[in-house]
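Translate sequence into structure tokens.
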Amino acid sequence: MKKWKLSGALALAASGLLGMASATASECEELVLGSAISLTGKYATNGVHAKNGYEFAIKKIDENGGVMIDGQCYNFRVIYYDDESKGDRGATLAERLISQDKVQYMLGPYSSGLTKAIAPVTERYKIPMVEAEGASRSLFNKGYKYLFAVLSTSEQYLASAVTLAGEMAEKSGKSASDVRVAIAVENDPFSLDIRAGVMEDAQKLGMEVVIDERLPRDLSDMSAILTKVKLIKPDLLVVSGHSKGAATAVRQIDEQNVKVPMIAVTHCEAADVTGNFGDAANDILCSTQWAETLSYEDPIFGSAANYEKEFKAAYPEYTDKKVPYQTAQASAAVYVFKDAFERAGTLDKDAVRDAIAKTDLMTFYGAIKFSEAGNNIAKPMVLRQIQDGAYNVVAPSAFASHALNWPRQ
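Result follows.
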């Protein structure tokens, strides 16, 4: 299938007359990627964020000359199927994309659980998959050769909150080992990895984990856990339950008037906790893979701040809220494919796989370089605190734009 792309230039003559330069046309072929993504079900919010990130990147790459492979221009197109947030359906759809639609390159689904379901399929067919939404470290101990992830692995998400709690304890004249930690996570691979990272870091600092709970299956009520938090009074509460869990946590912490000096939660932006709960979200710490204030940039998207600006212009529904990192990292995954295709100089999927493995790329999202296991080893996680409705980077200190509000009132 052929696609024509027209570009024009306006030139202002010295006399002040406006003239139109002649249009040029370049012929680009389609380069098809596939993705089973959650457009319905419990992961739908973030699934849509990811799909929007894919589509925005495709548009930007198209506007910047497409993908040049051995002198031929290509434009990406993605075949999407809704996995309904179900792993078995995701695996079936991956088979369909490969066997029926003849897709040779895959973008990942949303969540670690769905990525775990699809990865054995892409691996069996030797289909390169660049994924942006599956952070579980257990994805990268299976020996997969065709799976690559642009995001930091999940054990890093809230570990920095443990370090930060220890720092604040020492500033107040106590020891890091005096910090008492409460953990409440969803029973899924991503959140269980977050728990493992928090447990490991707490143990290193000699902290006591006084609450270690699983969120209820439907993620809609954690009042029993919060009652226990009020009784035991930990110094740090960490919560991981994707978008629905984040919304439940912020809402019920406010409703039950839970007072904990430091609270750290995943998926704040995706759940739009500031828009939905206003002042109740203030001083919550939110882990993020990316922030628009970071000093990352590349030739396609420009700076991190420019990415946010242009994405909001393309998708006005995000105008009054932060662009979720799930969206930014989805765009980065598409960019990795562009870079790999151009370096490979061919559509041969094994050559493209090898080029992906050798990626060493700076992007608006951060540095991307893959370990032999396929995870990104070049980009740190960031903690932002909601301060008067704004998300401000407070940790690690090297990236901090604002001081931490502590203790949380």
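Note: The chain has two domains: 2-149+293-369, 156-288+382-399.
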